[in-house]
């Protein structure tokens, strides 16, 4: 603007006239610059969150620099010219005309940029209208604002704490007593005397001031006269002295000692207002700043690990304390493309809202998306070709990347067509009357809630209601949390508001709280509006105050000393500063004040909670049916409910426990008696109902609307999966990444982490829910959420199995998935691909990596059709080779060939410049990878686990972006040796190194830089198995392992077939404080087990195959064999397995005076297998042991550990070992082997009835003994008797209802006939090696029967109708009769579907 003003100088104007520069050009330039200046406030505010606005500002800045250069040249020449006449004649030449043309170009460019304001929705916005901060109030939580070593200082930078200090002073008891008139005013940018004066009056009088003239100053004078006053003017920016003096006039009439406290960032303001020296506020020191951070980061009642977070938090605080820019302009087509994108953006919100009611708008959106896909394909192609060309370019050639793109654009005629199509579609936005929406009105999508509810209409929430009421009635609280905030969280329509209404109207709650308010918050958390609403709820009067401080003071007065309950229903925003401001007045209520918040968003719940949030779950089927039936049927109706209920229950199944869905569909059918209408609803999708008929879609649309655009795309992508699909987070993130749905990460982060954040955000907003299968990382999507994704993905996202008529597939389809287990799915997919050449995604659902290989795919033909693929999966198909044409898929970013039969990969695979993910899992025939894989410079994920790969390609170190590598096979040569790992610094997750015998020395091992790979959490170090005859240099092996030392934060470590005799010192060091799992397997040369007892977090330990170890001694618990000044050994261990130690003889006990100091205090499972020479003691006391398994330890004869809560005991192949006190009352599983063990157990059972035993197995006992009291324990469900010929099977004198499984093998010889009616619930029976058995009568509940080696058995009496499987082996009499379908036998078994005789299936048509 300075240059524009210089243009008004007469000398400059005369010179310009002499240059034939039309003054209209200058007028245009001034107008354009002023227009840009008016938009800057809005643009600078929005650029932080809106990328297009940031680009616009950058473009404007660039154009202004160009204009400034040009004007500088003009003003300099005019100012330095001495003879204007000669100047005129000399400069009227071609060069000057070129200058005029250049100026027109500059102004034209500026005008073009400024005119984009409408497209971007930029507005002329004065500074005082900026919404960057919430106005301050005088209220402060003292414990949050206390400062160490702090004096009163009122001037300082933004965020330093001026307002907080003023609040502390204002609320100090001494100040409160000193001044009888007080006012707090948040001034802001504009010092309007009238406005500020009125605000002071309202603060002082607590009444609305209606005066509109400066005579209000006189009114303020009357209010202040003779009184001691304190006025705080917070956040003052203006230094207009006359306004300040006018404002001060009224205050001179106050009594002596009146004070005005001003906070400001600006020294000149402080200098203008001060009567005493200003107080400059300094920065906090590191510890003070940490106290502020910790106070807001940690809730008083939280149980999360503060120490771990504190370490990270201090790292966050430490820094606080301490190619071708003309390319876009040069290419007109790309500028047109950019302009179209700008113009389409602002109307998308309006179009998304209108598409539900206007099919033409819906079609416009589809056409726009289709055009954008084509434009994206084009840009992707250009950038890829340019990047490849740059990579392959000779370093000596200076041609730029942009010039390469220029040439591609000139050679291709597609771009003009694509840009033209996009422009045509965008131009139609005016035809559809689409508006530029900065904010969409949600009021038409939902009715604001109230506190009223009909409790008889609510089902399935009694337990939730009681839990919330219990929290509300609980008066205990922490001093740090004067207000208890209880969030209720759940997806839209799950019943959060309903639960809050039930609680709010409960009689106990009504009696408990004498101040109550219900506020429907919505998407805009406006502190002033919400505070006024609470006041109006509490007082039942309108609140006319308009200043935030006066409103909050009024609310403070209303709640002081009172028990209050405030419900904030449907809260969406998580602006922490606004929330803290809103909470201000409530800290003055009496003990027991409560705020109940309902929200769909976990982040909101986390921000507001002072106790854990209450997560609302879906209703069960019967509860959901009750909701539906309550709304579908009138209580006195006469219509036939039974006829409709069958269809109704199927409709309820679609609701999947969502009460709003059941209520809406029930209400829709309330007046419909015709069963055909009900079937129509059953077969319809939710988006086919009008919004007046059904509230489900609007409720879910709100959740979708508030998603950021990047999350919307990721959510819709999930429509490619079927309902009830269990999502794998890792796999989904790789696909999102391949589809370019992830924003570029900030510094220090990676794309995968961005994807995980997206997934977690969607889960936090209830778009994903944890799966009920119990797996920690498995998630599902509610069916109605899936329907919403399917609606928004229509035409572009297609699941093949759900489309019967493939011909109807739209050419707009970009993403295809199909169910590989559906026999018709593959042909349909192939047919769809013929009409959809623009497909970007092709993958199968539910592919089995371990099942049969599927047929029906011709990769060569398919790849010829689909050249724009980003994602391609051939998982589990019967494919033995890929065609060379795979290298032509330049867009491809994700390729999955897992469980195929490929033996080699084509060399052309190395051309896939964009490839990010290559999956080759379980490709059993694959022997090698392409030799030039180093060309795949964008590869991030390489998984070939389950293959028999022989060696790695050369120069893998060039793949510097690799984030996941399943395994590295150390080669014998430098180019594929272990040193290539050194440059792969970004590996994450789990990682395995194989063939470590190829590492020649510690120097090579050191080159791998394993200690620098800090993102790995699970490492396997593997040597190939070796023969005893092989000679190993033990010291060299130890040195190699020493240099493979991983970083200290590792969680899991496995070492296989290590060839040294001792481990290096780092194995077992307590500095590995996060290690939870350790496996040492097949270390045949080792003669000592390393010291592992001081690993503080170790939970699982496996030691196996140490063939030379004879003793596990004191060093196992700690290095020097003592326990002085050490933590309890193995203090976190839960699972210990020691297997295959053929020479192990002694396990030295750990001496301690008290059981509390004994090792293994948390051990739950102990397994000792195949240690035939072990004789010595085992640990004497294991207080947490639940499972003890000892197998094939023939010499073990000691007492077993005392284990008071033991649940499972297996003693097999060990005659002498036994427990002092067998805890029969606790055991659930017991399996013993050998005469002494069986006799010992039976003896113990005669004294103690096993009340919890569900499984009992006995074997290899030749003694003639009987079950105690000749009966089975009543709790027993499974019984196995093997090789116990003389054991008497118990004769049940009454029915035994618990037993479901019975196995008798070569046992109970005294029984020649076997009748089992005493076991009415027996499902499984196996009878084997019973030479004397002649007849068998089974239970009528039996489902599976095995009979093996019973040579005298001819028939089975009364086989039940429930039997599904009959398997006969080596029973010649019975088997022969069945095979020939003997009429004496066949009629009794002909109903059984599966009959197997001597491994041959007997065809049984009558069973089907």
UniProtKB/TrEMBL annotation:
Coiled coil: none annotated. One of its GO terms (biological process) is defense response. Keywords: ATP-binding, Leucine-rich repeat, Nucleotide-binding, Plant defense, Repeat. It comes from Arachis hypogaea. Signal peptide: none annotated. This is Disease resistance RPP13-like protein 1. GO terms for molecular function: ADP binding; ATP binding. Residues 23-87, 315-387 form the Disease resistance N-terminal domain. Residues 151-298, 462-633 form the NB-ARC domain. Residues 720-789 form the Disease resistance protein winged helix domain. Residues 978-1105 form the R13L1/DRL21-like LRR repeat region domain.
């Amino acid at each position: 603007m300075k240059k524009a003003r210089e243009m008004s100088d007469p000398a400059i104007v005369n010179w310009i006239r002499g240059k034939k520069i039309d003054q209209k050009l200058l007028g245009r330039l001034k107008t354009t610059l002023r227009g840009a200046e008016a938009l800057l406030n809005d643009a600078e505010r929005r650029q932080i969150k809106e990328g297009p606005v940031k680009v616009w500002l950058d473009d404007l800045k660039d154009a202004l620099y160009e204009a400034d250069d040009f004007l500088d040249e003009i003003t300099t020449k005019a100012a330095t010219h001495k003879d204007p006449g000669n100047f005129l004649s000399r400069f009227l030449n071609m060069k000057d005309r070129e200058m005029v043309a250049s100026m027109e170009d500059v102004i034209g460019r500026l005008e073009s940029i400024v005119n984009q304001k409408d497209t971007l929705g930029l507005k002329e916005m004065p500074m005082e209208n900026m919404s960057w901060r919430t106005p301050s109030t005088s209220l402060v939580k003292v414990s949050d604002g206390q400062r160490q070593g702090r004096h009163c200082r009122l001037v300082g930078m933004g965020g330093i704490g001026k307002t907080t200090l003023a609040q502390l002073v204002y609320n100090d008891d001494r100040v409160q007593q000193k001044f009888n008139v007080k006012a707090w005013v948040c001034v802001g940018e504009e010092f309007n005397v009238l406005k500020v004066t009125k605000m002071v009056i309202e603060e002082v009088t607590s009444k609305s001031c209606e005066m509109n003239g400066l005579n209000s100053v006189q009114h303020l004078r009357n209010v202040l006269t003779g009184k001691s006053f304190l006025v705080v003017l917070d956040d003052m920016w203006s230094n207009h002295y006359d306004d300040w003096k006018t404002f001060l006039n009224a205050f001179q009439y106050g009594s002596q000692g009146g004070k005005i406290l001003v906070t400001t960032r600006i020294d000149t303001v402080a200098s203008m207002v001060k009567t005493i020296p200003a107080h400059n506020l300094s920065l906090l020191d590191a510890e003070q700043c940490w106290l502020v951070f910790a106070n807001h980061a940690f809730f008083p009642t939280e149980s999360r690990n503060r120490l771990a977070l504190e370490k990270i938090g201090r790292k966050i605080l430490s820094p606080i304390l301490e190619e071708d820019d003309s390319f876009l302009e040069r290419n007109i087509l790309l500028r047109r493309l950019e302009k179209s994108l700008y113009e389409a953006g602002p109307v998308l919100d309006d179009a998304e809202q209108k598409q539900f009611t206007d099919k033409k708008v819906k079609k416009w959106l589809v056409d726009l998306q289709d055009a954008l896909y084509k434009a994206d394909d084009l840009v992707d192609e250009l950038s890829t070709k340019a990047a490849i060309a740059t990579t392959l370019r000779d370093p000596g050639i200076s041609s730029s990347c942009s010039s390469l793109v220029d040439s591609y654009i000139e050679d291709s005629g597609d771009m003009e067509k694509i840009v033209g199509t996009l422009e045509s579609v965008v131009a139609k936005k005016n035809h559809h009357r689409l508006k530029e929406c900065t904010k969409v009105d949600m009021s038409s999508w939902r009715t604001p809630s109230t506190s009223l509810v009909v409790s008889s209409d609510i089902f399935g929430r009694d337990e939730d209601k009681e839990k919330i009421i219990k929290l509300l009635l609980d008066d205990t609280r922490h001093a740090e949390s004067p207000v208890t905030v209880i969030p209720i969280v759940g997806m839209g329509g799950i019943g959060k508001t309903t639960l809050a209404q039930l609680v709010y109207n409960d009689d106990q709650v009504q009696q408990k709280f004498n101040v109550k308010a219900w506020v429907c918050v919505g998407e805009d958390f406006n502190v002033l509006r919400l505070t006024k609403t609470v006041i109006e709820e509490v007082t039942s009067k309108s609140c006319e105050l308009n200043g935030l401080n006066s409103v909050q003071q009024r609310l403070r007065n209303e709640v002081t000393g009172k028990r209050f309950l405030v419900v904030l229903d449907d809260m969406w925003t998580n602006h922490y500063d606004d929330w803290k401001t809103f909470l201000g007045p409530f800290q003055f209520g009496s003990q027991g004040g409560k705020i109940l918040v309902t929200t769909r968003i976990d982040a909101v719940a986390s921000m507001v909670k002072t106790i854990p949030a209450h997560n609302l779950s879906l209703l069960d089927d019967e509860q959901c049916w009750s909701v539906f039936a309550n709304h579908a049927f009138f209580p006195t109706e006469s219509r036939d409910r039974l006829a409709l209920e069958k269809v109704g229950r199927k409709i309820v199944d679609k609701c999947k426990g969502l009460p709003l869905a059941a209520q809406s569909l029930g209400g829709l059918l309330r007046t419909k008696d015709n069963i055909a209408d009900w079937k129509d609803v059953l077969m319809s999708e939710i988006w086919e109902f009008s919004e007046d008929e059904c509230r489900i879609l609007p409720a879910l649309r709100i959740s979708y609307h508030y998603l950021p655009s990047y999350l919307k795309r990721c959510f819709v992508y999930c429509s490619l999966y079927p309902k009830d699909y269990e999502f794998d987070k890792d796999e989904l993130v790789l696909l999102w990444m391949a589809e370019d749905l992830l924003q570029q990460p900030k510094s220090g982060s990676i794309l995968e982490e961005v994807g995980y954040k997206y997934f977690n955000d969607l889960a936090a907003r209830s778009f994903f829910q944890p799966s009920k299968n119990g797996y920690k990382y498995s998630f599902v999507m509610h069916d109605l959420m899936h329907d919403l994704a399917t609606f928004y993905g229509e035409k572009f996202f297609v699941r093949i199995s759900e489309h019967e008529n493939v011909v109807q597939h739209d050419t707009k389809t970009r993403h295809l998935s199909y169910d590989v287990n559906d026999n018709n799915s593959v042909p349909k997919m192939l047919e769809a691909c013929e009409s959809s050449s623009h497909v970007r995604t092709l993958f199968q659902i539910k592919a089995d990596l371990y099942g049969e290989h599927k047929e029906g795919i011709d990769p060569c033909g398919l790849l010829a059709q689909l050249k724009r693929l980003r994602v391609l999966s051939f998982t589990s198909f019967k494919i033995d080779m890929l065609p060379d044409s795979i290298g032509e898929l330049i867009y491809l970013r994700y390729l999955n060939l897992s469980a195929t039969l490929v033996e080699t990969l084509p060399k052309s695979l190395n051309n896939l410049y964009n490839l990010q993910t290559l999956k080759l899992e379980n490709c059993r025939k694959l022997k090698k990878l392409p030799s030039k894989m180093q060309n795949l410079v964008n590869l991030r994920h390489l998984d070939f686990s389950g293959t028999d790969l022989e060696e790695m390609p050369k120069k893998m170190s060039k793949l510097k972006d690799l984030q996941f590598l399943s395994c590295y096979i150390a080669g014998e040569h430098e180019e594929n040796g272990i040193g290539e790992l050194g440059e792969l610094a970004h590996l994450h997750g789990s990682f395995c190194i194989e063939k470590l015998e190829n590492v020649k020395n510690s120097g090579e091992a050191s080159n791998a830089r394993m200690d620098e790979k800090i993102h790995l959490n699970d490492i396997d170090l593997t040597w190939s198995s070796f023969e005893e005859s092989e000679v190993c240099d033990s010291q060299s092996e130890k040195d190699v392992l020493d240099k493979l030392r991983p970083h200290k934060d590792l969680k899991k470590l496995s070492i296989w077939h290590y060839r040294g005799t001792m481990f290096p010192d780092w194995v077992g060091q307590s500095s590995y404080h996060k290690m939870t799992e350790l496996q040492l397997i097949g270390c045949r040369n080792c003669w000592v087990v390393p010291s592992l007892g001081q690993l503080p977090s170790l939970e699982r330990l496996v030691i196996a195959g140490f063939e030379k170890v004879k003793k596990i001694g004191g060093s196992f618990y700690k290095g020097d064999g003592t326990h002085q000044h050490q933590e309890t050994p193995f203090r976190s261990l839960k699972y210990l397995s020691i297997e295959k130690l053929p020479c192990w003889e002694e396990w030295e006990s750990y001496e301690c005076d008290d059981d509390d100091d004994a090792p293994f205090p948390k051990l739950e499972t102990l397994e000792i297998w195949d240690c035939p020479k072990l004789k010595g003691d085992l640990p004497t006391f294991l207080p947490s042991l639940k499972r003890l398994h000892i197998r094939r330890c023939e010499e073990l004869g000691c007492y077993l550990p005392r284990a008071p809560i033991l649940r499972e005991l297996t003693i097999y192949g060990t005659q002498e070992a036994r427990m002092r006190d067998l805890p029969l009352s606790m055991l659930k599983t017991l399996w013993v082997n050998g005469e002494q063990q069986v006799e010992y157990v039976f003896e113990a059972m005669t004294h103690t009835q096993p009340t919890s035993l569900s499984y009992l197995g006995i074997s290899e006992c030749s003694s003639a003994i009987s079950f105690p009291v000749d009966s089975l324990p009543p709790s027993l469900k499974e019984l196995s008797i093997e090789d116990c010929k003389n054991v008497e099977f118990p004769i049940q004198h009454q029915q035994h209802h618990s037993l479901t499984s019975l196995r008798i093998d070569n046992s109970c010889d005294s029984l020649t006939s076997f009748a089992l009616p005493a076991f009415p619930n027996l499902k499984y029976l196996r009878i084997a090696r019973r030479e004397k058995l002649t007849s068998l009568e089974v239970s009528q509940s039996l489902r599976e029967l095995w009979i093996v080696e019973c040579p005298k058995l001819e028939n089975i009496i009364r086989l039940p109708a429930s039997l599904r499987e009959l398997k006969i082996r080596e029973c010649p009499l019975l088997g022969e009769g069945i095979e020939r379908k003997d009429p004496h036998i066949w009629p009794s078994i002909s109903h059984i579907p599966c009959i197997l005789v001597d491994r041959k299936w007997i065809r049984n048509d009558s069973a089907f």
